[in-house]
Design a protein that fits this description.
- The protein starts with 14 loop residues before the first helix and ends with a helix.
- The strands form five sheets. The chain has a six-stranded mixed beta sheet, sandwiched between helices. A three-stranded antiparallel beta sheet has the order 1-2-3, covered by helices on one side. It has a two-stranded parallel sheet with strand order 6-9.
- By secondary structure, it is an alpha/beta fold.
- Helices cover 33% and strands 20% of the residues.
């Protein structure tokens, strides 16, 4: 038998050769799968499976966190009327997530809402169960808070007699002011803002009338006078009972909060310049009346968020004599100063201020309170005049009848010359000069700014002196408005928009 090349004999003698060949094959390592390689393969498969489970876990966790974040943000909105817990639950119900556990906590007050939520979602593993991990739990935690900062506004408005004059379009300036101020109030108190906002309206003419209640709280003292009527001596109130302006001295203009435990005289009830009866009421001191009864009044309106009441007041307030802008600014600051809280609490006890605001004014450094003064004038600060004879028993000489004693109620000081009216003297005296009043005004402006109060000013159809006063008092040139005619409304709207914007970033 002929063997071909490379063929091995198949006899018994050839078996050792085959055995050696098989042994060499077994011993060779190239091209073989060892135990180590098999282990590596198994581990690679395991790691890939774990990666898949982790990817599923992370996708689920991200969806859970995204749903929770959206839910708490929506639930924390103060303006939304639904139950915050139900809002969060509704978001999860429509998310497509299943078998989750959810816990929601809510804190809320007049001007804030905080929503905290924690959620868990279990996921059955596809590969990790081979290593004893059958379930992965995805946690998510979220919190959201909306705080509408408290806003305290002193709206200081010029109601001097010159506001009856017409502008270039033939409209009386007071008829420009009323709707502009109303629109301002409505916008500042819009929607949920009203709950955390108070507006005090401070009308000023020659002086500021704080009202009878505040007059008494401050220690105001009214004067009485005796006169003869029908042969009998009658004791009567010297000045108008609705005139409650307080007489201040130099010391009082260095106080920056409503004084407590003091004694103040009542400002005499007089006129200096001619009255215009259709638009004006008698008095250097604006008169007070019952606003709740719908009566016209020009006294301070304290810390209110009642849009209808404030706008009704603006519609009915009347003009008076004089321009004492420094008094308006002083009262505007006083109503924002935290040391005035004693008076606001007392007014709240009397039902004049809503009890929700009895803790105001807030401290100047309260991070959740924005304090603003909006000051408007159509003129400039003038001298402060007073009747020479406040008791009116000196003029004319030996006068005892009511018609002579109370002549300042019916005739302006400017018209009372040095005849019998005032015993040969001028009927009026200068209580303080314009320069003194201007210095007092700037001192109040500077104190307000130093304490973080934002001051917006409006010079409306005014002169150079009035423009300078308003520009100097404002927090910056951006807070000063010089307007004419119908632009007054745009100025008030701009200020309202700025206040609302400041509210968002406070």
């Amino acid at each position: 038998m002929r063997l071909e090349k490379n063929e091995y004999p198949r006899t018994a003698a050839d078996r050792p050769g085959r055995t050696r060949l098989i042994g060499r094959f077994v011993r060779r390592e190239d091209g073989t799968m060892t135990t180590f390689a098999l282990m590596i393969f198994v581990l690679m498969v395991a790691v890939g499976g774990i990666a898949i489970d982790i990817m599923r876990y992370e996708t689920q966790r991200a969806q859970l966190q995204y749903t929770l974040d959206r839910a708490v943000l929506a639930a924390a909105a103060v303006s939304q009327p639904l139950n915050p817990v139900e809002v969060v639950e509704n978001y999860f119900e429509i998310s497509g997530l299943q078998n989750y556990r959810l816990n929601v906590n809510v804190e809320e007050g007049i001007n804030f809402r905080r929503v905290n939520a924690y959620a868990e979602l279990e996921m059955n593993t596809l590969f990790m169960h081979m290593f004893g991990i059958r379930v992965l739990t995805s946690p998510a935690e979220g919190a959201a808070e909306e705080i509408i900062p408290n806003v305290e506004v002193s709206l200081v408005l010029d109601v001097s007699g010159s506001m009856r004059f017409t502008d270039s379009d033939g409209m009386p300036q007071i008829d420009r002011l009323r709707p502009a101020a109303r629109n301002f109030v409505t916008r500042v108190l819009e929607d949920e803002r009203a709950a955390s906002t108070t507006i005090s309206i401070v009308p000023y003419a020659g002086q500021v009338n704080p009202g009878a209640a505040m007059f008494d709280l401050m220690g105001g003292s009214r004067a009485y006078i005796d006169y003869t009527s029908g042969g009998d001596t009658v004791t009567a109130l010297r000045d108008h009972p609705r005139s409650s302006c307080v007489e201040f001295d130099n010391t009082d203009f260095t106080r920056w909060a409503i004084p407590q435990g003091e004694s103040f005289a009542q400002v005499p009830h007089f006129m200096n310049w001619a009255i215009d009866n259709p638009t004006m009421d008698w008095g250097w001191c604006p008169l007070e009346d019952d606003v709740s009864a719908g009566n016209p009044s020009s006294a301070i309106q304290y810390l209110s968020n009642n849009d209808d009441r404030l706008n009704g007041f603006l519609d009915r307030m009347r003009l008076h004599d004089g321009t004492g802008t420094h008094y308006g600014m002083l009262w505007g600051l006083w109503l924002l100063h935290p040391d005035s809280n004693w008076a606001i609490q007392a007014l709240a006890d009397q039902g004049i201020v809503n009890s929700d605001f009895e803790d105001r004014p807030a401290p100047f450094n309260d991070p959740q309170t924005l304090k603003v003064i909006v000051l408007m004038t159509d003129g400039n600060i003038t001298d402060q005049f007073r009747p020479r004879f406040t008791d009116r028993t000196e003029a004319p000489i030996n006068a005892t009848t009511e018609s002579n004693i109370f002549f300042n109620h019916t005739e302006e000081l400017d018209q009372q010359r040095s005849g019998d009216h005032c015993n040969g003297q001028g009927c009026r005296v200068t209580e303080s000069s314009r320069s003194t009043n201007l210095a007092r005004f700037y001192a109040a402006c500077n104190t307000a700014k130093q304490n973080g109060v934002i001051i917006f000013t409006i010079a409306f159809n005014t002169n150079a002196n009035g423009r300078e006063e308003m520009q100097t008092c404002a927090s910056s040139t951006a807070h000063y408005y010089d307007v004419r005619g119908s632009d007054l409304d745009a100025a008030f709207q701009s200020i309202a928009g700025a206040i609302n914007q400041l509210r968002l970033i406070q």
